[in-house]
Design a protein that fits this description.
The chain is 66% helix and 4% strand. By secondary structure, the chain is mainly α. Helix 4 packs antiparallel against helix 6. The protein is built from eight helices and three strands. A three-stranded antiparallel beta sheet has the order 1-3-2, with helices on one face.
């Protein structure tokens, strides 16, 4: 399979992804696809040829191999990578649909755009992106569960017992390089778990950001409605109404001071009147 073509196709998702999405894509192609192509295929390349059972009964080895390995790890991981990376194409397809719709709108309305930024996660694109994250995490978790159920765990036993027909009795079967295969199996399982964790973190981040935005818009609308329905009045009197007084003066002294200021004000008024005449 041409994994480089898939990588080049999905690399366009980076400009529509958050930080968690970029880390997820790096995890998929560096720690999963690259390891799968370079190392894992070579490790499991001899699983059928070097599978040995201590019997010469014709067909017994093939039956035991099919019982111990119902599906090859390589083929199962290839299916997992395909299913996990395909939901990202939903986002790319949705953005392309928006761009085409915006292009038609511009042609009909003489330059005015329907979308300011077709790749911005708003409206339907936000739901498409969130749905793709759910699918990616769900596919990864499902394949981990399938692998665990088929092989009864993530271990690679050095010795396996088989008593299926046409084997004459219970025979011992041995797989090649069990320790190396166990290490690669655990590596792929851990990398899948990290990818699931990154998808969950991105879902929480997107949901939290959306809730914060909705609450902010609601608060702004409530404040605007309050300002429209209530008359705003000044709480404090104007500065001209304030009178500075000494707190150490008695009431009689305050009255004398007020009378003095009143007399001075009346004198000033009389002078102004005479000057005007």
């Amino acid at each position: 399979m041409n994994w480089s073509a898939l990588e080049s196709l999905l690399s366009g998702v980076n400009k529509y992804s958050t930080v968690f999405g970029r880390v997820w894509l790096s995890m998929v192609f560096v720690f999963r696809v690259l390891v799968f192509v370079v190392a894992a295929q070579r490790v499991w390349g001899d699983e059928s040829k070097d599978f040995v059972c201590n019997t010469r009964q014709p067909g017994c080895t093939n039956v035991c191999y099919d019982s111990i390995f119902p599906i090859s790890h390589i083929r199962l991981w290839a299916l997992q990578l395909i299913f996990v990376t395909c939901p990202s194409l939903m986002v790319v397809a949705h953005v392309k649909y928006r761009e085409e719709k915006d292009r038609k709108y511009v042609a009909l309305h003489q330059g005015s755009h329907l979308y300011t930024n077709p790749g911005k996660k708003r409206g339907g694109l936000w739901w498409t992106y969130l749905l793709s994250l759910i699918f990616k995490a769900g596919f990864d978790a499902s394949f981990l569960y399938i692998l665990y159920r088929i092989y009864h765990g993530y271990d690679m036993p050095r010795l396996s017992k088989c008593s299926l027909e046409p084997c004459p009795n219970t025979v011992d079967c041995f797989i090649s390089r069990p320790t190396e295969k166990k290490i690669f199996t655990l590596f792929m399982v851990v990398s899948s778990a990290i990818c699931i964790f990154m998808c969950i973190c991105e879902m929480i981040y997107l949901t939290g950001k959306r809730i914060q935005k909705v609450l902010k818009v609601r608060y702004d609308n409530e404040m605007l409605l309050f300002a429209e329905t209530h008359e705003v009045t000044s709480i404090a009197p104007p500065r001209s109404q304030y009178r500075m007084s000494d707190p150490t003066l008695t009431d009689s002294q305050l009255n004398l001071t007020r009378k003095k200021k009143t007399n001075e004000a009346s004198t000033c008024t009389a002078k102004e009147a005479s000057t005007t005449l």
